[in-house]
Amino acid sequence: MVQMDIIKRKKHSVIIRVLYSLIFFSILYITVVRPTRVYVNRNYIAPLFQSLEKNQTSYLTITPRRVNIHSEGYDSPIGFGMPFGGYFWLPFSLFISVRQKWPAVGLTLYHIFLGIIPPFLTFLFIKHFTWAGSLLKINEILFQGIFLISLFWGIKSILVVNKKEMKKSKL
Q: pTM for this structure?
């Protein structure tokens, strides 16, 4: 019989894992994700919506990570932001650091949804389906709510894991 060495990975405290996760995902976001989001918005999304918006009663403003429509009858612009921004990566990195697989998957699926439905609603709004503007406003509120819930859930998970680690270390 051959004896094999079992290599165990070193267990870091949850605080160290959170720091590693935040640093890793921050570097990933700054070096890969953000430039990709800006590139896609400038070269694909913005030109598409600018071509749709011609000869309409509204006007379009484009930022590196957002498309806004300024329309008559609305005080603030209506539009959407590119998914997988900071509102995704902060809670996602917290979920990954405490090994919360399903919340991380759910957050990812929600941001995939954000890449499909709000642009479609914006298209409808440009084509004078005014109800789509109301849905876009509701989406903005839900987006911020889901971010805050995810953030608090991630923080709570960190505190629970840290408390368990503290109890284990005292034994």
A: 0.85
* Domains contained in the chain, number: 1
Tell whether 5 is covered by a domain. Answer: no
Within-domain flag for 1 = no
Residue 3 lies in a domain: no
Q: Within 10 Å of residue 112's Cβ, how many Cβ atoms?
A: 12
| β strands within 58-148, DSSP E | 59-63, 66-70, 78-81
Q: pLDDT class for 56, splitting at 50, 70, 90?
A: low
Domain enclosing residue 109, as ranges: 14-170
| Whether 118 contacts 69, CB under 8 Å | no
- What does the pLDDT look like over 139-162, one tens digit per residue? 999 999 999 999 999 999 999 999
Q: Where are the beta strands (DSSP E) in the chain?
A: 59-63, 66-70, 78-81
Which tokens is 103 given? Answer: 């919340």
Residues 132 and 122: beta-carbon distance below 8 Å: yes
Buried b (16+ CB within 10 A) or exposed e, 118-149: bbebbebbbeeeeebbebbeebbeebeebbee
